[in-house]
Amino acid sequence: MKKLECNLSFDNTCCWMWTLSSIFTGFKILEKDGILKVKSVSMDKNFRADGRYPDRMIVELKADGKTIAYDMSDGYQSINIPELFDAQLDRLDYYFKSSYDPNFALKLRNKNKFLPLAIAYECTCAGNYFEKANISDALKNHRYKEYIFQMLTKQKRRKILDYKNFESHNHFDSYNILFWTRLWNGHVTPEGIMQVYSELDYETSKEKAEKQNQMFSEINKQRIECVRMLKNEFGERFVGGLGDSEDSRELAPDLITHDPRIETREGYLNSLKGNYINVLSKGLHGCVGARYGETFAAGRAFMTDPFAYLVEGNPQNGINFIEYNDAYSLTNNISKVIDNVDMIHKIENENFAFYNKYIRPDVRILNTLKIAFPEYF
């Protein structure tokens, strides 16, 4: 059977935004396995500025006369005018969205084109087109310091971010708790909103800024409460804290951690494959962030607050994770399961299977291609 020939492009303002890299990793693995062919990869003009897409965190696929979009943006803060978004969907065949909201989809005229995209995490692989395109762009546009830095750090970056390095399926005889998180800077202004979203007037921008600042405040408050209570309740069985930042130093300096097991990304990812129950919380605009993908890849059991969006594959409370609503329910739920090793092992098995069915970079892309190009797959 003839292979699908793919032409990929992404926004040239998304240099080194590794959230997008998972898309290209998936395509590269599929090409290596002989399933498709990538004909070209280009860094295009600003997708949002020219009106093609609502956000810049998008990878566009053109193949066999069809146009497919992969939207990796958090939530729906960029879709300010649903009617405009529907018009943008008119020229597309499918639009796969992380942070998929089925209620939003129902409002669309093009709802059948608007579909969920599985959880992602920042990863790479040998020959990743995203990395190649960024290095070539830096050289082409005379950003020599960037080019040299990226070439010098290429091997170390690949060692940390290679998708295979995230994967594990280990079981342990006892478990501790892991929660390494960050706080957000909640100082969004109407003027800042208008710089990004020129289609909005001042009053709408003011309302949007207030909503975002409230979101930052609520996220920070819950994370601080959870870290503090876990630290107090579980002592040495808790590994975690807040990353060091201006906001952490202002709001909760006593919870900042410099534990080498988690202070660096490499250390955290290594610890994630250890004997821990991971604690997660929704990200900006309610997104199901990269740490969820990392946790599934590591085959770990985890605690999470309720999902704000539909997650592709529909993971279940009590099967793939244990849900909490606040710091009190989090500590209570951990107390109930932390010594129930059989239950933890069962969740770990479920999550590693879930990863291989929905989240692994190649499978994640292949599942979308089976929808968009059934005649090829």
Structure description:
- This protein is of the alpha/beta class and 377 residues long.
- It folds into two domains: 4-163 and 361-372, no CATH class; 176-359, Rossmann fold (3-Layer(aba) Sandwich), CATH 3.40.50.
- It is built from 15 helices and eleven strands.
- It has helices spanning 21-32, 82-90, 102-106, 129-140, 144-152, 154-161, 163-166, 190-196, 202-234, 246-251, 265-272, 290-297, 327-337, 341-359, 361-372; strands at 4-11, 36-44, 58-63, 66-71, 94-97, 114-116, 176-181, 238-242, 276-280, 302-304, 322-323.
- The termini are close together.
SSE blueprint and pairings:
Layout: E1 4-11, H1 21-32, E2 36-44, E3 58-63, E4 66-71, H2 82-90, E5 94-97, H3 102-106, E6 114-116, H4 129-140, H5 144-152, H6 154-161, H7 163-166, E7 176-181, H8 190-196, H9 202-234, E8 238-242, H10 246-251, H11 265-272, E9 276-280, H12 290-297, E10 302-304, E11 322-323, H13 327-337, H14 341-359, H15 361-372
Helix pairs in contact: 1-15, 4-5, 8-9, 9-13, 12-14, 14-15
